[in-house]
Amino acid sequence: MENILNTSLKSYENCVKCGKCLPACPSYNFNFNEFFSPRGRIRLIASEIKDELPLKISKFEKSMSACLLCGRCTDICPNGVKTGPLVIEEKFKLNKLKTDKFSIDNFVLKALKGNSKFLFSAGLRFSNILKFNNLNIPKPSGKSFILHNDLNFSVRNNITKNNSEDCYENISIKKNSYNINEEKTNENDENYTDINNQITSAKPQIKEEISKNNLIKVGYFSGCVFNNIYPEISKSTVSALNKNNISVFVPSSQSCCGLPHISSGDINSFKKLAINNALSFKNKKLDYIITSCASCSFSINKLYPLYFCAEEKNEAKEKDRLEILNFSKKLIDIWNFFNILKKKGIKIKQGNLDKKLDVVFHIPCHLKNSADFIPFSKNEQLIGEAGSIIDNINGLNLKPLKHNYCCGNGGMFNIRHYSMSKEITKKKFSEIKEAIKETDKNKETTKETTNQETAAQVILTSCSGCILSLKDQKNILENDKKIPVKHLIEIYDKSIKY
Amino acid sequence: MEKNIVCAEFKNLLGKDRVLSDKEELLCYSYDAAIKESMPDFVVFPLNAIEISAIVKICKKHNIPITGRGAGSGFSGGSVPIKGGTVVSFAKMNNVLELDEENMFVTVEPGIINGDLKNYLDEKGYFYPPDPASFEFCTIGGNVAECAGGPKAVKYGVTKNYVYKLEVITGDGEIINTGSKAIKDVAGYNLTQLLVGSEGTLGLFSKITLKFLSKPAYSNLLIVSFDDVNNGFTAALTLLKLNNRPSMLEFMDNSSINAVKNYFKSSLLDIKGDFLFIIEADGTLEEVNSSINLYKDILNKFSPILLFAAGNDAERSEIMNARKAISPSLRTFGDLKINNDIAVPINKIIEILTAIKNISDKYKVPIINFGHFGDGNIHVNIMLNKSDSEMVDRGEEAKYEVIKKTIELGGTISGEHGIGIIKKEFMKLKFDDYYINLMRNIKKSFDPDNILNPGKIFD
User: Fold this and answer.
1) Looking at residue A418, what is its pLDDT?
2) Contact A56 B24 (CB under 8 A)
3) What does each C-alpha distance from A57 to A53, A93, A171, A476, B28 come to in angstroms?
4) Which chain B residues have a beta carbon less than 8 Å from that of A52?
5) A103-115: average pLDDT
6) Structural domain A4-95, CATH architecture
7) A493 close to A393: Cβ distance less than 8 angstroms
8) ∠ CA(A436), CA(A441), CA(A442), 5° rounding?
9) Which residues of chain B lie closer than 8 angstroms to A59, CB-CB?
10) pLDDT range class, residue A237, cuts 50, 70, 90
11) Domain spanning B334-417 has what CATH number?
12) Please, what is the Cα angle at A231 between A226 and A234, to 5 degrees?
């Protein structure tokens, strides 16, 4: 079999230096210095590989570490140059050369690797105290989503019609309402109680209805940010799935997807995390594994197959590798999942908002539509698969963004190059402000100035990194105003009822 | 040259962030889309004419070459600093300075991307036609310096037809303003048009004033192919005689049809034949429909084997994707491409293609041809394997013969990419010594110390 990783790592030879990647690159557009362009990086890498020119490591690293791994250059390259894997490979080589100095980003990476909630929040708090690089690291908005046990969210347990207004109530962190699977599932996978059985024991009267609907069982991959910093997004995702008659299984042993590690060149940790994640979902008889984070889906769908493409001679390792590929195949982002339901003719619940809401949707670089995606509605044409959910929420008014610039997060980029990252965010907000201004203009002309209709404007997106970056609005808007940032699934979840 | 002294002078002028002098950074400015590379000594990022003038004066004082650079996407090596020295990057000068809607002129800084200007005007209902294949990333400054063309040239002309005014810094560091917004302007020599296509050898642009048009409301595409080359050729010439001639008339010969056929699988298009055209009509909806019908009637008389008008946007983009697939599909023929952009009078197209076919057979190298039929500009791609040095030599010989034949037929050695360093050797085939000396003397008037892009076009 062709080794796609090796092919990627040779693809620098295909670069014809046409320059098509320049305008696509967020780090080039920061100050128009080609040293920070994909073409420049490819030239530097070629020089390093061919050993033509002795390069200063610190300087060389500066260019590589400023790559956000957004993949925009690779997407438009007519010659298939894979800048992402090439940059990762260089970072990997550079890491080997570096002495093990303490740095805040290494500390954060270690915290993520252990998936220890204590280390994670300690890491965040620590960086908050240090204000490293003036970096604004957000404080966790609540307890971790995944606690110490596997979670099973079965459909229609704990429904009380009265509090359907606030759906969070249904899945607030209380053991009872979670219906946590107390059995030690990790000991023996075969003993894992089927979600259907769970429901049977909990609410026998619903069984018939569900079997008629051919209940779908999914796993939920939370990702570290939606687990530790914004657990409410994980809750909303699970809740929205439940409300659509989908049972959700959340293994407690899952960890970070590994993207922050690989984007820092730590391929070994990335691989360890991949194995851990794949094994966490093993043998659970799940139809799909869903994530609501675009970066996690990029990491698992695109990078796992790339870094596990080579067959292992060791039998146990090969088994793990196949499990990872299987996991990667099963994992899909939430929008792709809803679109699959749509294709299968399964109706998704229609949501209603009490107030009209003007929104912009920031398309994360890592949110790529599947190759065979054909948009049906205007919203889908504007923002891809996520648009079909916008169709399903009455009262949501989407304002298209003209350029769809990058948010500036780029995983560890945001920590290493904070000021550069914030300049990119500023550029993002320039188009957001433009879209909002147009909304205001339209309102003036149509004289819709009653309080009811001038609802707050919200930035929606679908990626943990983008949310972190877009929420950090210090010195971006005049008078320190803030525009709220939400995950689209939060709005959808709020808008639908059981 | 004392590099440190010059560097300090630049940093004093521009601040340290707008001067690059580390070799890692310089490496990223040592090339463009042509093959040759050469390292500069400095890269500077000016923001206005006054800074450019000061940069030129520093370089003049120390006798350092200056090479202007937009996106570095040229095919002739125009922005490669072959004699080292200073690269002046215009990338930070990328603003629209003035939109004069009454006179229909737009004034821009040279670093603005062609596609960004197109979009800016498009939103206001206007249209800037020149559309080189790289329009999404090449800059207007580079377009003017090389006089870029594109498929729409058949109806709308090329960059030079849109440039009316220039603010230019000469080799003395003086700022001059050429031309005016008056449509008729015959005062003195036409320095504006002399500077268009001068490849950075006469001056550096700091402001460019371009004419724009009203946007055509609608356009549609037609695809047609013929088994008989002569039929196709006569059919296309007939279309060009029409008063409402096509706004695009791209052709692919059988070598490129075969290349695309294997690479581009389309459910819509069964690409076949020996001579294929992609034809565009633009205007109001009625005009487009009547043009398309007229073209179809004419083409049908020449027994086409495929004749197909796009019915909707999806089909239009499918057709354009087939055209765009040519370049990447060429990789299957070799990893080294010698790309020539010869142009001949349109009635000589068949003759040159036949000659190219013979040259391809003689030197046993695949040559793929496609391009802009409407203006006789053919992209002759000689495909070679880098590792096969003997084949590369044969390719070079083939290239020489193609160019000789082109000149014999009254054509030219470059239709839109410019001479730069890549085609410099062919200048003596096209021009005699007297003519080249005349050009040298013109350069001397603009650039007495020969510091502006030295070694380009001629030595």
Assistant:
1) 86
2) yes
3) 12, 11, 50, 34, 16
4) none
5) 63
6) Orthogonal Bundle (1.10)
7) no
8) 95
9) 22, 24-25
10) very high
11) 3.30.70.2740
12) 70
pLDDT tens digits, residue range A373-424? 888 888 988 888 999 999 999 999 998 898 889 999 887 788 888 888 999 9
**For residues B51 and A20, what is the distance between their CA atoms, to the nearest angstrom?**
28
Interchain pair A18, B25: CB under 8 A? no
Nearest to B27 among A13, A22, A44 (CB): A44
Q: State the sign of the Cα–Cα–Cα–Cα dihedral B114, B118, B119, B124.
A: positive
Taking an 8 Å cut-off on Cβ atoms, the answer to whether B28 and A78 are in contact is: no
pLDDT confidence band for A124 (50 / 70 / 90): low
For residue A320, the SS3 value is helix
Nearest to A287 by CA among A329, A325, A324, A243: A329
CA B279 to chain centre: 20
What is the model's pTM? 0.88
Residue identified by tokens 């007229």 is B294
- Residue B156 is predicted with a pLDDT of 96
- Neighbouring-strand partners of residue A352: A394
Chain B partners within 8 Å of A53 (Cβ): 23, 27
CA A446 to chain centre: 38
Which of chain A's residues have a Cβ under 8 Å away from the Cβ of B335? 13
CB–CB of A53 and B23 under 8 A? Answer: yes
Q: Which of A18, A34, A47 sits opposite B29 (nearest CB)?
A: A34
Instruction: Tell me the domain boundaries of chain A.
Output: 4-95, 151-340, 348-495
Of the two residues A148 and B110, the one the predictor is more confident about is B110
In the predicted structure, residue A81 carries a pLDDT above the cut 90: yes
Start-to-end CA distance of chain B, whole Å, equals 22
For residue B80, count other CB atoms closer than 10 A to its CB: 30
Interchain CB distance below 8 Å, B24 and A63: yes
For chain B, the farthest-separated pair of C-alpha atoms sits apart, in whole angstroms, at 72
- Which amino acid, residue B105? F
Structure confidence at residue A40 (pLDDT): 97
Say which CATH topology domain B96-214 has: 3.30.465
Per-residue burial over B21-48, b if 16 or more Cβ lie within 10 Å, else e, is bebbbbbbbbbbbbbeebbbbbbbbbbe
Q: What stretches of A281-383 show up as alpha helix (H) in DSSP?
A: 294-297, 304-307, 315-330, 334-343, 378-383
Q: Which of B227, B245, B246, B220 is nearest to B319 (CA)?
A: B220
**Which helix (H) or strand (E) element contains residue B382?**
strand B377-384
Complex ipTM more than 0.90, yes or no: yes
In CATH, B3-89 is 3.30.43.10: yes
Are A294 and A466 in contact, with CB atoms under 8 Å apart?
Answer: yes
Q: Chain A within 8 Å of B71 (Cβ-Cβ)?
A: yes
Region class of A265: left (phi > 0), else alpha (psi between -120 and 50), else beta: left
Fold of B218-327: Alpha-Beta Plaits (3.30.70)
Query: For chain B, which residues make up each domain, given as ranges?
Result: 3-89, 96-214, 218-327, 334-417
Cα separation, B69 vs B32, whole angstroms = 9
What is the C-alpha to C-alpha distance for residues B376 and A442, in angstroms, rounded to an integer? 49
Assigned token pair, A429: 């907000």
Q: Do domains B218-327 and B334-417 have the same CATH topology?
A: yes
Check: CB of residue B380 under 8 Å from CB of residue B407.
no
Q: Give strand pairing partners of A460.
A: A361, A486
pLDDT at A416: 82
In tens, the pLDDT along A287-332 reads 999 999 999 999 999 999 999 999 999 999 999 999 999 999 999 9
Computed over every residue of chain A, the mean pLDDT equals 79
- Tokens for B243, please give them: 């008063």
Whether the CB of A17 is below 8 Å from some CB of chain B: the reply is: yes
Of chain B, the percentage scoring pLDDT greater than 70 comes to 99
Q: Please write the tens of the pLDDT for every residue from B257-273.
A: 888 887 777 766 677 78
